[in-house]
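Q: Here's a chain of 141 amino acids. Please give me its 3D structure as C-alpha cells.
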Amino acid sequence: MISAPTLNALLNSCSAIFLTAGYVQIRRKHVMAHRMCMVIAFCCSTAFLVSYVLYHLRAGVVHFEGQGWIRPVYFTLLGTHTVLAIIIVPLALVTLSRALSRKFDRHRRIARWTLPIWLYVSVTGVIVYLLLYHLYAPSIA
C-alpha cells in the first residue's frame, strides 16, 4: 500500500509534468491539449491538497532529522515552498476562472506569474518529500 506522503509526492510530480506539458502545448498553439493538461494539473494539485490536509490532521507535524548544512537548506526550501503554496491557491483559481470565462488576454497576463510559481511549488514539494521521508528520515527504533 502506498503511504500518504508518497501519494502526495506523486500527485505533485504529476502536477509538474502536466503543467510543463500544458506550457509546451500552448506554445505550439494546441489550445485543446493545453486546456486538458492544465485541468489535469489542477485536479492533481487539488487531490494533493485534500490528501495533504487529511494526512497532517491525522499524523501531525513530521520533524526534519537532518543535521549540519542541510538543515538551513531544507528550512529555506520549505519556507519558500510554504509561502508560495499559500499564494498559488487563489492565483491558480483566478487563472483557471479567466480561462473558463474566455477572458484570454487577462488569463495570459496572470498565467505568466501562475505557471512558474505553481511549478516551483510542485517541484519543491517533491524535494521536501525526498528530504523528509527518504534522505533524512527518522530512524524507527
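Q: Can you summarize the key feature?
A: Helices lie at 4-27, 31-59, 70-100, 104-135.
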